[in-house]
Amino acid sequence: MSDPVVRLTELARSFEQGGVRIDVLNGVNLTIEPGEIVALVGPSGSGKSTMLQAVGLLEGGFSGKIEIAGQDASTLDSAERTTLRRDHLGFVYQFHHLLPDFTARENIVLPQLLLGVSRADAVVRAEQLLGALGLEHRMDHRPSKLSGGEQQRVAVARALANKPQLVLADEPTGNLDEKTSERVLGEFLELVRGQGSAALVATHNERLAARMDRVVRLHEGRIE
Ligand SMILES: Nc1ncnc2c1ncn2[C@@H]1O[C@H](COP(=O)(O)OP(=O)(O)OP(=O)(O)O)[C@@H](O)[C@H]1O
């Protein structure tokens, strides 16, 4: 049997704020199997982003155990964590974070080049993803020339470009109107399912959460 994509054991994180300690995560246990799409819901301030940062190996300061694709993150140095992120993870944020001076196509080609994919293959993959997202007529546009929904579609394509085992998404459609949000999320789920990636998607939106394989809820720093 293959390793879970993510296994969190008693994950905890506190912050000091004006001399007061806030325990944001208080012993989170969660396992995500390959190909499983999990919605992470909880009210504002419940720690969803903090948890995604932990799983994305983007921040230190956590206690407990974080295993990604069978590797215990605490045993890795910073270069090894970067490699693990690059090889196994894809990220989508609420705001697109695309490179402003590059076209939509180039924004999806670049992460593939970093993995050693040939330029020709990277372009084919970028165009296939953009086509699947209905952006075949926007490939040469820079992000500032795209609508919010189009920008988020490009961000989705970029996150999926390297077929990561796990996609981490923090309110990926949070800045879009409801109709666009539903559509972009549907396209995202279809592509993620189609390529067999797992995903952990933080959202406030129960309707969007219900479209995923499993919903987990953060409450008082734990998963209910
Ligand atoms: N670097 C930090 N320093 C101090 N407090 C922090 C820091 N990062 C997060 N927090 C606090 O941790 C709590 C959880 O924040 P987090 O952003 O993880 O919540 P969230 O569930 O993602 O919220 P939202 O849905 O509003 O994005 C908040 O009370 C926040 O103020």
UniProtKB/TrEMBL annotation:
GO molecular function, one term: transmembrane transporter activity
GO BP, sorted A to Z: lipoprotein localization to outer membrane; protein localization to outer membrane
Keyword field: ATP-binding, Cell inner membrane, Cell membrane, Membrane, Nucleotide-binding, Transport
Homology family: Belongs to the ABC transporter superfamily. Macrolide exporter (TC 3.A.1.122) family.
Keyword ATP-binding among UniProt keywords: yes
Organism field: Aurantiacibacter marinus
Segments forming domain ABC transporter: 6-224
One CC-aspect GO term: membrane protein complex
Domain of life: Bacteria
One Pfam entry name: ABC_tran
SMART domains hit by this protein: AAA
Keyword Cell membrane on entry: yes
Protein name listed in UniProt: ABC transporter
